[in-house]
């Protein structure tokens, strides 16, 4: 009986040891993000694409103290052809963006506030400027909630497996 238990325990340890382990990173916590989706107000013209951009952060509501978001580790502001994304260790309360487009014009946005941990914005490209508006929506669970739920499910799953193993071991020893 004890030999079976020892063999089963060793097999469990070998199984756990053979599972892949992801590389450990020192800075793995979730970071606040901003996601910008663009729509073009101007009709009848070729669709504009983004060539470069800067996100300015401000502590003052009038942005008199504006400074570009610094690039440091994962903290940065990046743009694709028709979207932009910012990740930071923490955002200031107020912002504005300045983007250069394929028509050669540089357009600036209105001042907008941080809308939450994972902020989403709709940016309207107008002839001479940009209009940033907050996009509200459920957007699914935050990453932290998903991680917490996954951990709870893993603990329950491991508990069920261990419980079944013990049940079948006791049942077989009773016979």
How would you describe this structure to a colleague?
The protein has helices at residues 2-18, 143-174, and strands spanning 33-40, 50-58, 67-68, 76-79, 83-87, 94-101, 106-108, 112-113, 118-125, 130-134. The model has no long low-confidence stretch (mean pLDDT 84). It is elongated, with a radius of gyration of 26 Å. The termini are close together. The strands form 2 sheets. It has a 5-stranded mixed beta sheet, with no helix packed on it. Strand 4 (76-79) and strand 5 form a beta hairpin. It has 2 helices and 10 strands. The relative contact order is 0.16. It is of the alpha+beta class and 175 residues long. It has 2 domains: 33-134, Immunoglobulin-like (Sandwich), CATH 2.60.40; 141-175.
- Name the shape in a single word: elongated
**What proportion of the residues form beta strands (DSSP E)?**
25-35%
| Major pleated sheet | 5 strands, mixed
CATH architecture of the largest domain: Sandwich
Strand order of the largest sheet: 4-5-1-9-10
Q: What structural class is derived from the secondary structure elements?
A: alpha+beta
Q: Can you tell me the CATH class of the largest domain?
A: Mainly Beta
The overall number of domains is 2
- Can you tell me the residue ranges where pLDDT is under 50 for at least 5 consecutive residues? none
Q: How large is the radius of gyration?
A: 26 Å
Distance between the termini: 11 Å
Q: Helix coverage percent of residues?
A: 25-40%
Mean pLDDT: 84
Question: What is the β-strand count?
Answer: 10
Output the number of helix runs.
2
Please write the string of helix (H) and strand (E) elements. Answer: HEEEEEEEEEEH
Q: What name is given to the CATH topology of the largest domain?
A: Immunoglobulin-like
């Amino acid at each position: 009986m004890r030999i079976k238990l020892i063999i089963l325990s060793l097999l469990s340890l070998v199984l756990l040891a053979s599972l892949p382990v992801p590389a450990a990173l020192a800075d793995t916590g979730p970071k606040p993000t901003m996601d910008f989706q663009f729509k073009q107000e101007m009709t009848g013209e070729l669709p504009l694409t983004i060539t470069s951009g800067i996100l300015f952060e401000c502590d003052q509501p009038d942005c008199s103290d504006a400074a570009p978001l610094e690039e440091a580790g994962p903290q940065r502001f990046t743009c694709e052809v028709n979207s932009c994304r910012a990740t930071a260790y923490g955002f200031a309360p107020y912002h504005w963006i300045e983007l250069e487009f394929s028509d050669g014009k540089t357009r600036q946005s209105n001042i907008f506030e941080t809308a939450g941990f994972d902020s989403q914005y709709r940016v309207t490209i107008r002839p001479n400027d940009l209009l940033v508006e907050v996009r509200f929506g459920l957007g699914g669970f935050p990453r932290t909630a998903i991680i917490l739920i996954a951990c709870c499910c893993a603990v329950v799953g491991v508990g069920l497996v261990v419980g079944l193993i013990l049940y079948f071991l006791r049942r077989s020893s009773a016979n």
